[in-house]
């Protein structure tokens, strides 16, 4: 597993499909797409996504029926419906048949990303294999209780600050974290230094991890940093 959460976006409007694909990939998700009900079922069966963003109105069927078919096939992924319908009856039907949330068009992309993250948190609150205190990303393992990090089975010596920084990144795999967020989490809100301290410690952490595997900390220029594989 490479640490990326798999999201399938299903919508027959190319502009919405392209926009959501771009936004979700920017936020670190591995995105697959489909434009019809039949394609959605086929892609979901092959990819086994962690979450599906599913338009209710599709050219060859109904998204609610797609949801029903996916649940019948044993897919446990989160499902966020995306639709122009806002009648309470439609919402209740979609959620009753196995949907997890319902976003009405027009919508804010920030709101949609927040809903996606909220559903994923509800579905897997441990964010891992259920082992208390142990975080894993790609070939990196962080044991919080023992304050120990291994990469590819080899111990990686980190300072307490480097350890806290890596832990914060590993608790948010794929997510772009701003310097302000990192300062607040790793150094606490009363830290009065400049934001370059984040850049400095990111550099330290990259150098500590580099001998044991490929780069996993990426820079989102003008935004912050994210833990990702494949560049």
Question: What key attributes describe this structure?
Answer:
single chain; alpha/beta; 4-stranded antiparallel sheet; 8 helices
Give a quick summary of the entry.
The protein has 231 residues and is α/β, with parallel strands linked by helices.
Overview of the molecule:
The protein has a five-stranded parallel beta sheet, with helices on both faces. The protein contains eight helices and 14 strands. The protein has helices at residues 14-26, 37-47, 63-72, 88-96, 109-123, 160-170, 179-187, 196-209, and strands at residues 6-10, 30-34, 51-55, 57-58, 61-62, 78-83, 101-104, 134-137, 140-143, 148-151, 154-155, 177-178, 217-220, 224-227.
Principal-axis shape? elongated
Low-confidence stretches: 125-132, 188-194
> What's the average pLDDT?
83
Approximate helicity band: 25-40%
Major beta sheet summary: 5 strands, parallel
Task: Give the count of helical stretches.
Answer: 8
Class inferred from helices and paired strands:
alpha/beta
Radius of gyration: 20 Å
Give the distance, in angstroms, between the N- and C-terminal Cα atoms: 16 Å
What share of the residues does DSSP label as strand, in percent? 15-25%
Number of strands: 14
The SSE order reads: EHEHEEEHEHEHEEEEHEHHEE
With strands numbered from the N-terminus, the spatial order across the biggest sheet is: 2-1-3-6-7
Map the helices and strands:
Blueprint: E1 6-10, H1 14-26, E2 30-34, H2 37-47, E3 51-55, E4 57-58, E5 61-62, H3 63-72, E6 78-83, H4 88-96, E7 101-104, H5 109-123, E8 134-137, E9 140-143, E10 148-151, E11 154-155, H6 160-170, E12 177-178, H7 179-187, H8 196-209, E13 217-220, E14 224-227
Parallel strand pairs: 1-2, 1-3, 3-6, 6-7
Antiparallel strand pairs: 4-5, 8-9, 9-10, 10-11, 12-14, 13-14
Helix pairs in contact: 2-3, 6-7, 6-8
């Amino acid at each position: 597993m490479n640490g990326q959460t798999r999201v399938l976006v299903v919508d027959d409007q190319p502009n919405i499909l392209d926009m959501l694909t771009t936004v979700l990939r920017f936020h670190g998700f591995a995105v697959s797409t489909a434009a019809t009900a039949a394609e959605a079922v086929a892609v979901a069966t092959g990819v086994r996504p962690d979450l599906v963003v599913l338009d209710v109105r599709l050219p060859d069927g109904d998204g609610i029926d797609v949801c029903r078919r996916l649940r019948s096939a044993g897919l446990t992924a989160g499902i966020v419906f995306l639709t122009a319908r806002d009648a309470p009856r439609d919402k209740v039907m979609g959620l009753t048949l196995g949907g997890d949330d319902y976003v009405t068009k027009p919508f804010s992309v920030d709101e949609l990303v927040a809903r996606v993250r909220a559903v994923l948190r509800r579905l897997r609150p441990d964010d891992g294999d259920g082992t208390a205190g142990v975080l894993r990303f790609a070939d990196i393992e962080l044991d919080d209780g023992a304050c120990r990090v291994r990469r590819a089975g080899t111990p990686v010596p980190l300072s307490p600050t480097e350890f806290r920084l890596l832990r914060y990144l590993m608790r948010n795999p794929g997510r772009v974290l701003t310097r302000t967020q990192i300062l607040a989490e790793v150094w606490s809100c009363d830290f009065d230094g400049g934001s370059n301290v984040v850049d400095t410690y990111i550099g330290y952490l990259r150098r500590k991890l580099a001998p044991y595997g490929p780069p996993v900390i990426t820079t989102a220029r003008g935004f912050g940093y994210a833990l990702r594989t494949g560049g």
